[in-house]
User: What shape does this take?
Amino acid sequence: MTPAKRKKQQVKLLPKSPTGIPGLDEITGGGLPKGRPTLVCGGAGCCKTLFALEFLINGATQYDEPGVFVAFEENAEELAQNVASLGFDLNDLIRQKKLIVDHVQIERSEIEETGEYDLEGLFIRLGHAIDTIGAKRVALDTIEVLFAALPNHTIIRAELQRLFRWLKNKGVTAIVTAERGNGTMTRFGLEEYVADCVILLDHRVTEQLSTRRLRIVKYRGSFHGTNEYPFLIGKDGISVLPITSLGLDYEVSRERISSGVKELDDMLDGKGFYRGSSILLSGTAGTGKTSLAAAFVDAACQRGERCLYFAFEESTSQIIRNMSSIGIDLAPHVKKGLLQFHMARPTLYGLEMHLVTMYDLIKEHKPDVVVLDPITDFFAIGTKAEVKATITRMIDLLKTNQTTALFTSFTSEEDSPDQSIVGVSSLIDAWISLRNLESNGERHRGLFILKSRGMAHSNQIRSYHLTDDGIKIGAVDLTGRQTQEAPQMYPLVFTEKQTE
Assistant: This one.
């Protein structure tokens, strides 16, 4: 007798309220717990107030969920001025009755603990505001002000539990902000135990560079990312940068595009790179990394494609002038709007801000080709692990968008040519190594393909030259003395297709 099959019970997942904050909904698996309170804690300057406000603003503008913001420190006018620079019109939302900002002023000098202390007055006031506009979201900023004059932690714990229970019973998705304490997550060390979700914000300065980090300490009833994630305040508000959020399920293309150098295309199975692939050009100083990058961009623009070039060492005019000396004229592409340059020293700001800036520009211009020249300059502002994380995020973003990416990387004479300093070689689809070689008392440039996934490619080291008429890749011998018969004398040899 076979045992009866157990019926599968459909598990009801925890409903969530999307925050509308880029990256955060990916980390939380869809947003904050719907109809439950979330505690957002951190020290001064961690963006707790902005976090809570943006949650309400996005709810009102993107998800048709009105909100109530209860402020204990700043009034409505001050809050509106603070977020206006980010493009948020708080006063307009208030006029449309999509948002209520209630400033509750509590003077510590006027508080006297007599008899039983409770929050009944706050509940009545908050309940009226919720009912007035049918609010679905609530934010209280900050909770310490309510209990600043109370020394009795028993009362504080009881009223905190009562507050969080009241918010749950009202069915609103709430954010309660709290100051970080000494050695504790919050000043009273109690709030994190009664909240269903706890998000910790951190603002730190390392080697004179400021960074903000976010970590989800707990999230009852839901999976969530547990790492520390950098976040920034950009021109559109808060952006969270989760390294693990982007998956590997992006589409790939079989289309091939030219490298801009005919002989290099021949070395790549005669067809060039795959569209949407990631390409690394590594080499010592003076090997022509920027020149090959410029040839690649020039070919893309001639096909009518949009290109975005991030340069961290040279200005736009300097690159255009230098490339014109080898027959690559980038100026017409800039004039037509096909080629956009973004120039910035790496030390201008931290890695996260660089990444957000690149994200914003990519989103704005929607390029077909992106160049980062060189990525090794980021070592001036971050460790190897941090730089690798930044480049990994960028590679994942560009692959998801099917944007072809080319990165240049500086290597020293002592470094092995088949080792990437940044440590992203395993993420790269095609890797071309450039080097300076000496032969018979002369210095020459050599090029070879270390890897090119999914295609046959040459296994030879080829000499190449920067001429008035572009980049010319010559014979296998590295004497630098090209002859007309060199291509016939030294036929290309191809390896088996690389499928790693």
